[in-house]
Every structure is written in structure tokens, then in C-alpha cells.
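In response to reviewer comment 3 from the previous cycle, which asked for concrete evidence that the modeling workflow produces usable outputs, we include below a single protein chain processed end to end. The sequence was submitted unchanged, and the resulting C-alpha cells are shown without manual editing.
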Amino acid sequence: MSSSELVPVLPPFAEETIHRFLRAHVRDASAKGVVIGLSGGLDSSLSLRLAVDALGPRRVVGLVEPDDRFPTPRLEEIQRYARRLGVRTRVIPIAPVEEALVPLLPDPRDRVARGNVKARIRMILNYAQARDLSSLVVGTGNKSEILLGYFTKYGDGGADLLPLGDLYKTQVREMARRVGIPTAIRRRPPSADLWEGQTDEGELGITYELADRILLGMERLWDPPEIARRLRIPLTTVERIAGRVREHRHKRRLPPIPKLGGRTVGLDWRD
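The workflow returned the following C-alpha cells.
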């Protein structure tokens, strides 16, 4: 097998599978629809489009939760895109809540801690809006972010449904191109926008193209030396990514529970 084969390929049935997934879970929850936090990025824009295609625009609400440095042109772009899809949006500024919480942090200068606060404020507001609308919260995380732990636990990781959760970032990009997400959104560098100048790939120290190929090798149960050999990259690069996947397992699991009863939630009591 050549290294060129270690590239995630978007399944031709991916869109329809996600549409059915969304319809089934909304139906089973007796929900009226879904709410989606919109950042102007690729993942949230694609999630919005897929939800509209699956449920219709009247059952989808986009939430925009800008902080005090959120660019006005970005906000206007998000609203134009949502209107084009026929989706209602609600704009909820988070700056007042952030200003109240940040002084209570152990170190208010810690930009990662402040970024986590923003993500968790947005999660609280997403669920408040979902309750008001009798809807489910659609998260926008993809498989690359989930495996690498590149999300805030109980922040942007807090959601009822993750329709992009089994698509690597490079597959998300291909699906976005396929369904016609605007070029300006597709070309924007991926970023959680939690502080000035932040980008996903800058913080991770690796491009999504390479990270996804390493992760695909891990999905196929290849060991790090085999992945490094096939991709012709240093073993240390593969081991660093594998280390991130191991270290962030806690983000992908329910809180552990000690085994005491006959059937234990998360162990042998499964819904």
C-alpha cells in the first residue's frame, strides 16, 4: 500500500447518512428541531447546511454568540449565509458574562482558561435556547478535533448530536466543497477564535492534512513506526499525535464510575 492511500476519502453516502441521522434523533427525542452555534467557520456552516437539508429551515435556528472582539463583517456574513438558507438567527453577545467570570479565574491572564470560559458560556446559552425552543443542540466538532482533544470539555464539546463526528477535517472540507459552502468560508483558516491570532493548525503544530493521514493509520490499527514509514515522516511526529489521542481519552468518555451494582452506567448498562 502506498502512502497516497493513507488519505481519508469522503464516502459517497455521507450526506444522506447524516440527513437520516439528524431526522431520526430529532424524531426520537420528540424535539421540534435543532439549534446550532455559528462561528462563521467551515464546520458550523456545513452543519447548518446539513441540518437544513435534513429537517427544513423552519426547524433549524442558528445562534451567534460574539465576544467583544468578534468582527462585524463576520457577523454580517453569518447572517447573510443563514438568510440564504432560510434560517432564523439569534445574536447573543457574551461579553457581559465573560467580564463577570474572568476575574474569578485563578489566573485571569491565562488565555487558555479564558478561552475555555468563552466556550462554556456559549454551551450554556446553546442549551438555554434549545430548551426554550424544545430543540436539540447540534455540535460542530469533527473526527480530527475529537480524536486530538481539540475542543473544550463541556464547552464546544457539549452537544446532543455531532453530525460531523465521524468525518476527518479533510473530509469535511471535501463535503463543504461538494454541497457549495461559500468559498470565503471554505478558505478561512480554521480557528476557534478564542484569542487574537489563534488558528487550529498553529496551536496543534501540524496541518490537518498530515494529522488526518496519521489518524487514519491509527484507525487502521497500524503502529507508529509503520505509519511513519508509509508517510515518510519522522516517527516523533506520529508519536506526538498518538500521544495526544491517548492523553485526551477523558474528553471522549463519560465520567468513569466504579463498578458496584449489577449493571453500571457506561460499563454494562448501555442505552
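Residues 3-252 form a domain with the Rossmann fold fold (CATH 3.40.50.620). We consider this sufficient to address the reviewer's concern, and the full set will be provided in the supplementary archive.
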